[in-house]
Structures are given as structure tokens and as C-alpha cells.
User: Fold this.
Amino acid sequence: MRTYCTIITVDYLPFTKVLVASLKNSTEDVLLQVLVIDDNKTINSPGLSFHSINSLENTHFFKEIKNKYAHTDNPNHFRWALKPIFINYLLENGFSKVLYIDPDQYFVNDSSFLFDELDTNNILLTPHWPDINPIGNEDSLFAVLRGGLFNAGFIGSNIKGKAAMEWWAEMCHYKMERRKELGLFDDQKYLDILPVQFPNVQIIKHQGCNLASWNIDACKREMINGELRINKTYKPVFIHFSEDTIVNILNQNDKLLQPFLDEYIAALKKENIDLLNSVNHKDKKKDTSFYYAAKHKLRLRTRIKRFLFKLAEKI
Assistant:
């Protein structure tokens, strides 16, 4: 059985059901372990095993993190800080390999090879794969320097990775802030340190993993013989449907992912979730429609700038 895990609030249960269905469609023998931080009455169902935060009481650093973040104004800090705690809880309770995935991920091809990676590696990380050309796209370079080389929406560990997870939990307890002047970005920026400080940390090179808005330029999507390929080589494996990823697909910046978004929308509709209405509501609530329009124009300017730079190199 291949063990994945995620952490949610109870209102995110429909997304979890869609996530596990996507895993079952693409990968055999799947079990999704779900930590529900605000409910302890959720009943297990096929492919889903639920846990309450009370299950973690004896896991190292849980009490410290609970005391610091469980009652703050930002509930995300508590949920994010629990990632290494929940991973270690599972490792301590008979699961030798665990992949953590955010609940807004969606799997479109077989991901079992990631568990094979944990035969010889202790930790797995997925890069953001940004465009790092400082002349053609300096905003992308600055974003990854501020936010971190790796995305915290995915991390894998085997039993030998427990020490790294304990260190990550300690760092999350220390500070969970976005302070660019200090090099902090919630739970995520700490991941940059793992390949340096801990043995057998593997950076996943398969660029079909964790497709999202942040890798539009570096992980080029194109149709080859009627199938989507990333940089002419990789099949898409899983897509991170963050709000920004969804908006970039809808405004045609990432149009080749549209069929997968359509699948995702249809699956959520069966769970009584209107994803597009939810995204539009957030835009209106935050008054972000101008923000996204400006970002779209910036991306167009960036592409023009990159084209002119390449043209100048040839002259």
C-alpha cells in the first residue's frame, strides 16, 4: 500500500475526496491518511483514513506547536507547522514511506515511481522550477529567492528521514513568518537547508511533478503527438491547483492545463463545490481582479522583454 498524507480543516473534505479519487485513477494500492485539525468525528471511507490532532499528542514537538499556533489569528500556521509532525507520526506507526501532498493537488498520471525513490533516499523535494533569467524575467528569480527553492506542497520521507522532519518541526515552531529581510517564508524556506544538512535528500528531477503557475516558463507545456509533454520529455504527474494556478489557466497563460482543470472542476461539482464561483468570490472579496489583470500584463511584457533580449544576443 502506498501511503500519502494531507492536512485539512473539515470544510476541505470535498477536495480530499477528489484528491484520493485522482490518486486511485493513476496509481494502484493507494491510501490517503488525512489529519483533520478541527474535527474528530470524520468516518473512514475507501482509500481515506482520518486522524484528529489528539492522535499526535505523543509526537515530538506537537505540544509546543499546538500551544504556539492552534489559537492564533492565522489557522494556516498551525496546519502548515503540523506537516513534519504528521509525517513523523505516520512513520512511527508502521508506515515506512510517506508522501505529504497539499489537498489542492490533482494527480493525472502514475506517481508510484516517487515511492521507489524512497528506497535509496530519505527525503524527496520538488523544486519550484522558476525561470531564473535575471534579464528576461527577474521577477521570477526574485520570487524563488524570497519564497524558497522547493515547494512545501509536496515532501516525501522514509523512516530514516525522521531526524530531518524533527528539525523542520523545530524550525516551524521557532518562526512561521514571511519576512524577506530575514529569509523567512512560512514553513517553506526552511526546506532549502535540508539537502545541505541531512543525508540522502533527493531533488525530484521529473518536471511533470507539482505543475503550477510558478513553473509556467521553465517547465514548458506543449502538445506532442496529441499528448501533453513538459519540456518535450515529461508527462504531467500532478498539478498544484492553487488559486494563482487556476487563474493563470483561465486567463490562457497556461491553457494547455485547461483539460485537467475541467476534470477538477467537474469532480468538485459532484462534491457540491463550485470551484469557479469560489475563485471569483475570492477575487471580488480581496479586490484582486485588478491584481490578476496587472499580473497578466506583466507576464506579457516579460515575454516581450525576453524575446527582445534573445534577439539582441543574436545580433
User: Anything to note?
Assistant: The chain has a mean pLDDT of 90. Residues 164 and 198 are 7 Å apart (CA to CA). The radius of gyration is 20 Å.
